[in-house]
Input
Amino acid sequence: MLDFKEPKITDKPWVDQCLSHAHSMNCEYTFGNIFVWRTAYVTRICHYKDFLLIRYGRGADIAYSPPVGTGDFADAVRVYSRTRQKMVSLCACWV
Output
């Protein structure tokens, strides 16, 4: 089971390490934005192996970002799909 939690300033080092593999200028992939918008978007993060997993929303209105980091990307996607069965079709587009 994945342990999603509210981002804390102490998460910055490992989150930045994972985000360094994103090779993206997307503002979603900066610790500052994840941290600052955590309340408005109900952002939760999880450290899975060498990946950052991000969840937004609450109740039935939950979205997930693709795993960011290094290692077995397909494994990280499979873990997401076990967390939320309805994500299976979404995860297929990330692989």
About this structure: The helical segments are 12-19, 31-36, 73-83, 88-92. Residues 14 and 47 are 8 Å apart (CA to CA). The radius of gyration is 12 Å.
